[in-house]
Amino acid sequence: MKSAQSAKSADRLNPSVWHDRAYAPPVAAYLHIPFCRRRCFYCDFPISVIGDRRDGSNSLGVQTYVDQLCREIAATPNQGRSLETIFFGGGTPSLLTAAQIVRLLEMLDRQFGIAATAEISIELDPGTFDRAKLATIAAAGVNRVSLGVQTFDDRLLQAIGRSHTADEIDQAIELLQSGLIENFSLDLMAGLPHQTAEDWDRTLDRAIAIAPPHLSYYDLIVEPGTVFDRYYQPGADPLPSEAAAAEMYRRAADRLTANRYDHYEISNYAQPGYACRHNLTYWQNQTYYGLGLGATSYVNGQRVARPRRRDAYGDWLDRYVESGVAWVDTVEVEAGDGDRSGVGVGDAGITDGDGD
Amino acid sequence: MLGLRTATGINRDLWRSELVQLAGEAAIARVNRVIAQYEQAGVIAIETDSSRLRLTDPEGFLRSNSVLSDLFNAIEGDES
Fold it and tell me: 3-class DSSP state for residue A126?
C-alpha cells in the first residue's frame, strides 16, 4: 500500500493538480474602494478624488458605490467555501464610514460565509479614522490594518502629495497600539524625490522603533500619466539614482532582518506568524474573488478585470446582475492582465473628480 | 512564477510539470540555461536537494524583473 507521502508526491506530479488549483473555490476576497482625498503624485490607480471635506457620510458618490458593491457581492455565485481572507484596498477604504464597512462585511458573510479564523485586512490612511471607527470595525471582525505611512517626514510627505501629516501618523499608530487592532503593517516608500540615504535610515530607525508586526516597502516607480511623470525622469535628480535606490533596498533588508523581520516577499517583511495571508493568495497563484471597480478576480480558471471607470463599472454591473448567466460570460476578460502586486486591482487610467 | 517573489520560492518539480504542459519539453532546456546563468551570478539559489528554486535576498529580489522577464522569454522560445 502506498504511504501517504508517496501518494502525495504522485499527486504533485499529476498535471491535473494545476487544473484543479485554478478551479479551486476561492477562499479570498478583495474589495476595491476607489476614493481618496486627493491623488498622490505617483499614483495611477483607479480612484476618484473627493476632497478633504467629504467621506462616506456625506458623499453621494461613495454611498452609491457601496450600494453597487453590495449588488455585485449578492450577484456573485458562491463557489462553495467560506472566506478565509478579506482585503479592503484602495484608494482609501478608511474614507468609508464604519457602518458602510460593517455592511460590506455582512454582505460578504451572507453570500459566502466568513470563517471564524479569517484574516480581515483594511488599508487605512492616517487622518481618516478615529478610535470609534476603529473600535466598530474591529468589533465587526476587522483584525488587520495596513497603514499608508510612506514616510515619517513632513517635507517628503508634501513632496509626494500625501494628504496626511507626520503628526497624524503618530496619532494613527497610537490608536492601533492601544489594543484595538494590534496586527498592523506600515506601508513605506523609498526612492522619493529629494530623499537621501540619511532620510531613509531615519525612516527605518522610526519603523524599527515602532515595531509593527508587518512592514511593506515599495520603491517609487514613475508611472505614465502621473504628476511625477510630467516632472521627473527616473533615476535623475531630484529622484535618487538607480544605484542609490538599490542601496536603500539593501539597507532595508539588512536592518529589518537584523531586527527579527522575515523578508518573506520582495516588498514585505513580517515578524514570525504575521505574514499577510491574503497577499500570499496572489503570490501562490491561488483563486480569489475580486469585487468592485478595477478589481481583478481569479475564479474558475479565468482572470477577470472589471472596468476602471465609474460609469463603465456601473454599466457592467447592471449587465452582470440582470443577465443571470455564467460568471465568466458576463464580464470582459483581459488575458494576462496583471494584478497590482498584493491587492488585486489593475493599475491603469481612471479620471479624477467623478466621486459625486 | 509569481512564487519567485516569495522567500520560499517555487517547487521545482511542480513548476517543471507545469512548464511541460504549457510549452513542451523543449522549454525546459531553455529555462534551465537561464536558471544556470542566474545561479552562477548569485541571483537564483537552488536548495541543496534541488527541490526549490528561489531568488536570493537581497540581490536576487533586486533583479527580479530581469529574472522573470528572461524566464518568460525562455518559456516562449525567445531566449536572448
Answer: coil
A15 vs B contacts (CB less than 8 Å): 17-18, 20-21
Query: Taking CB atoms and an 8 Å cutoff, what residues of chain A touch B14?
Result: 12-13, 17-18
| ipTM of the shown complex | 0.92
- Place domain A25-329 in its CATH homologous superfamily: tm_1862 like domain (3.80.30.20)
Q: What is the pLDDT of residues B22-39, one digit of tens each?
A: 888 889 999 999 999 999
> CATH second-level architecture of B2-75?
Orthogonal Bundle (1.10)
- Name residue, grid cell 458562491: A78
Give the H/E segment covering residue A86: strand A83-90
Element (H, E) at A90: strand A83-90
Contact A253 B7 (CB under 8 A): no
d(CA B64, CA B68): 6
* Cβ–Cβ pairs < 8 A, chains A and B: 55
A298 φψ region: left (φ > 0), alpha (ψ -120 to 50), beta (else): beta
Put simply, the answer to whether A18 touches B18 (Cβ < 8 Å) is yes
Chain A residues close to B13, C-beta within 8 Å = 12-13
How far apart are the C-alpha atoms of B9 and A263, rounded to whole Å?
12
Q: How far apart are CA A260 and CA A272, in angstroms?
A: 8
Tell me: the pLDDT tens digits for A299-328? 988 888 899 999 999 999 998 898 854 344
